[in-house]
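User: Run a structure prediction on this.
Assistant: Running it now.
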Amino acid sequence: MFVHSVSNLTINKVVFANRLLNSPVGITINRESRERWALVLKIKGKTTYTVNGKTILSDGLHPLILPKGCSYSWKCTEPGECIIIEFEADCDNTTVYSYEIKDNTLLANNFSKIEKSLNTKSEYNQLESKYYLYEVLLFLLKSANHESPHPKKYSVLKPAIKYIAENYSDSRITNEMLSSLCGMSTVYFRRTFTSVYGISPIKYIHNFRIEKAKAILKSDYDTIEQVALSVGYNSIYHFSKMFKLYTGKSPLEYAKASRN
């Protein structure tokens, strides 16, 4: 499970909060290249999703996150009630996320709050809806860490994650430095980190820095060089290269697009 992708997700807008009752049983519906993100919880009944040949269960204790751009098919196997929160977000990932939870009370309650907030169309309904949705995402991520088959690995990697979060602007961060903080050999650290987060430590650092750079480019800054230095790149060429690799756009292109 790629926990880092969801934890770095930035919600731009909560679009809908829908309830679907008693979908027809046994009918397969295909969905190609989903146009926006969605959080799905089958409060009552059961639905199966098929993604790249893999079947994923959705019921009261198995919510799903469906990213923008993902393709899948779904089939209701037991009628009931399904809640769907559709939202727009900054995160380039098409992996369908499945979670196992022990209690869906928070999800159901927050859905009702989001639904009510969007229906009232108040001047602060987006801020309120985002707050409740972030609360749900945080709950799911904590559940994912708790249910991880290797919970001790998350714990032993915490010093490295904390150091990256607090020192990402330092261009001198290395695998050797991070492995030392975790009390591991460099080779074992890289292997453990990749098995837990789905990417190597260095890619995690680049991803973290690029997310920070995207936030700065949407705000106030003087030059691209200033942005590069602020997120840990001493070379504007290297920064621009990595930014385009991770976003598909140059820093200037991204900044202009975010302001249109």
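Residues 61 and 101 are 5 Å apart (CA to CA).
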